[in-house]
Write a structure and sequence with these properties.
Largest sheet: 4 strands, antiparallel
Low-confidence stretches: none
Organism: Streptomyces melanogenes
Protein name: Calcium-binding protein
Order of helices and strands: HHEEEEH
Distance between the termini: 21 Å
Shape: globular
Strand content: 25-35%
Number of helices: 3
Oligomer: single chain
Structural class: alpha+beta
């Protein structure tokens, strides 16, 4: 199934937000699905530098971020700004659904 298929993305959005009231709860629904389904860790390239994505988190201001590491350097990157590698890790369709929902 194509991760960019609009019908599939709509079905994932419905699944993530089914019991959510308001935008904050909807974002929490997406975070839960990403956290539960995204195969971690994985390696991707950010600004031309290979980095390891070690985890995801929901910030106090309601953003979903990826915990990225390279050696001893740690940085959170907004999940919407995170480039996915090819092939994408298992469960990344939830990130694509979240991107689709934010548009």
């Amino acid at each position: 199934m194509d991760a960019n298929d609009p019908a599939m993305l709509d079905a994932l959005i419905e699944q993530a937000t089914v019991d959510a009231y308001g935008e904050d709860e909807q974002v929490t629904g997406f975070f839960s699905m990403i956290e539960e389904n995204l195969a971690l860790p994985f390696t991707t390239t950010v600004l031309g530098v290979e980095t390891n994505v070690a985890g995801v988190d929901l910030t106090e201001d309601g953003r979903i971020v990826a915990h990225c590491t390279r050696g001893s350097v740690r940085q959170n990157i907004g999940i919407l700004d995170l480039p996915l590698p090819e092939p994408a890790p298992e469960g990344s369709r939830w990130i694509e659904a979240y991107r689709h929902w934010t548009r």
